[in-house]
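Hi support team,

I submitted a single chain yesterday and got back a structure, but I'm not sure I'm reading the token output correctly. Could someone confirm the output below corresponds to the sequence I sent? I've pasted both exactly as they appear in my results page.

Thanks,
R.
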Amino acid sequence: MEVSVPGLLMAFRAICAPAMFVLACFEFSGPLLAAVLAAGFASDVADAQIVRRTGTATPALRYADTLVDTVFYATAAAAMAVAVPGAFAGAGLLLVALITIHVSRATFELTKYGRVASYHMWSAKALGVLLAVAMAWSFLTGRPNALVTCALWLAIANELEGFAASAILPAWRPDVPSLLHALRMT
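Hi R., thanks for writing in. Yes, this is the structure output for that exact sequence:
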């Protein structure tokens, strides 16, 4: 098995996820949690840049990146729920909607393509930045903030955009920047 820098960066991000959760459970400081989050986010940005610059993006690598990103941000949210009292107060309906849409979309894609989509849409990139900022702010201050709600709305929009792309694209393909791009591909 060949080891690549993007693969190592993904593995690092995958390790950051449970580390963040365990640190939150043992009541480590918010700045430490924010630092682990920032390191994982930086690894996400770096692996994407390396893959683009070297032209080494493969469908398998993009698929793995999608799975690692999902686990990383979901685990970061769980860590935030543990470390920041009321982090998701008043956002229960948004969380239920997001989880329902995500599971429905994944089920649809698994049925249609045999795996979940790895579009890496522009909305997903914006979501990653917003999630990192919102969660880091909550970890650093120990308080919930309005950016978390904004991130949940953007996550729902991103999931709906991906769902629509999956509904119209006849075959699995990675790296579809937007729904408009998906429409042009059909």
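A quick pointer for reading it: The chain has a mean pLDDT of 96. Let us know if anything else looks off.

Best,
Support desk
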